[in-house]
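Supplementary material to the annual report.
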Amino acid sequence: MTGRRWLTLAVLLIVAALAGAPKQARADVTTDCEFLEISAKAGDKPAIDAELSPVEKKLKKPPFSTWNQFKLLSRSHKSLAKKKVEPVSLKIGAATATLVEIVDKSKVRLTITMDDDKGKQVANNTTTVEAGDYMIYVHGLANNDGHLLSLTCK
Amino acid sequence: MSERGPVKAGAGPDVPSAGADLELMEHADGEANGAADGDPAGADVAARIGRDPDARVKVAAIQQIGELVRGHLELSADAVHDAKFAAMWRRIDDQLEAPATGLWSRVARWFDRYRGHVITGAVSAGAVAALALILRPGTPDAGFAGRPGAAIDVRPVALRATPEIDSLDTPGGSSTVINLDDEDGHTTVIWVTPADTVEGI
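Predicted assembly:
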């Protein structure tokens, strides 16, 4: 094989690899999710952490109006890959998030598990939700306090 | 060169005069060669040199000084000449690119040598890539959405579907699902009440 043919073959292989790369990237579907861990209490004076501004309006409405003091315990940003269980570190207990699939290009099917501080599973849920919408898991604690986990994906 | 003045009468060979020295200088410089040029004054000077040893010494000295000056000037002229040439060559050398010896230059030379082949390969590869892109089967769930680079299309709130609970398991407790709608979209609240909680919501 002459040098010219080798060269042409090499360039073809490189371009074919580059053309295939976007396809591979598309197969690695991901979604970016934000998790907010919140503690909720009923107190004399209402107080909501400034960092909770994305969900502040929701927290002032029922059923969250049971409490009036909300404190951000932790905040994490996760890029979820399809079918890959992603641990979400919490101050109280633990959680995992898994992207099952993307539906109709605008919805995510997620499996969320949440454990309490003793390692006991509180919830195991799979939900299909539109990108940009919120899911809030509420776990009642002693003294009527609440442990909330809010998440939204885009 | 200058006005020739006659030698004063009575002035002997031992009495130098400016006019006589001037004539000797002219003779030494070859400007007054005597009878050969048909110059009677030059012939007189030549005759005087012939009979006057001092005049001969002066002429010889003048000729030596002249040679020295001439040699010095020629050397200076040669030196200037060389310096000018050296400067020219330096400029030329500076303007000429140094011979490339690095890896990049070798790669560049290789591409120069095979430019036609590279272009042919690139055009062929481009055609193949275009065919591959056109004929590639569609990807159902990972397509391009509204924003560039985003895997998911965030739809307007009004167009968003209600969340669907596919499965919900709350071991050791009871659950309540609440759907809230506001201007930000849907919010699905999954409220888990532990079984041992006496007072719930």
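DSSP finds two helices and nine strands in chain A.
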